[in-house]
Amino acid sequence: MRRDRWGLFIGGLLGALFGVLAAYLYLKARRERGGDARPSPAALVQSAVTLVTLLRQIVEMAEGKGRRA
Length: 69
Prior knowledge:
Elements: H1 3-32, H2 41-63
């Protein structure tokens, strides 16, 4: 496999593992709180903004921004 495809494969695999871990932790916390605890719309928006910020940081790392010489 070429290097760029290998990186895409590893990134996808790590993303999938992270998603499964997040779902597991969410379901575990939900069970501990009685099963009816749902996130508020504000919490969902905050999570979405955090994810977009994380993606921006990843793109900036790839572009080489923020590096100290």
